[in-house]
Amino acid sequence: MNLGDGPLVRLRALIAAQFAQIAATPALPMLLFSRELNVTNAELRATFHGRLTTFHGLLATEIRTAQEAGVLRGDMPANDAAVLLTSLVQGVAIRWALGARDFDLRAEGLRLFDVQCRLLAAEGK
Fold this sequence. Notes:
Distance between the termini: 6 Å
Mean pLDDT: 89
Number of helices: 6
Order of helices and strands: HHHHHH
């Protein structure tokens, strides 16, 4: 799949930025499951939720643009595809954190992003 310079390049950049932030802040994946975030600190939880919501919105916007351009299949709601990509980031980050950071987070994440894009590609793309 040729990414060119359109919405898939922007999607990839958004995903790469998330992996870069996680690699720069290795405690981040474990913080998501912390008691403080989930039980005792509503303000921190609201901050994380807001950032996740913003990230989700950016992904959904680029996915819609890719669907309108005929690059990604249009039979899946953009919000659902954004959830899949967000889950990809979270899943790879958790695997990296639990596995003693024994692989290149960014490289593995972007490899799987490329796989996901091939699965979401419009027919003939």
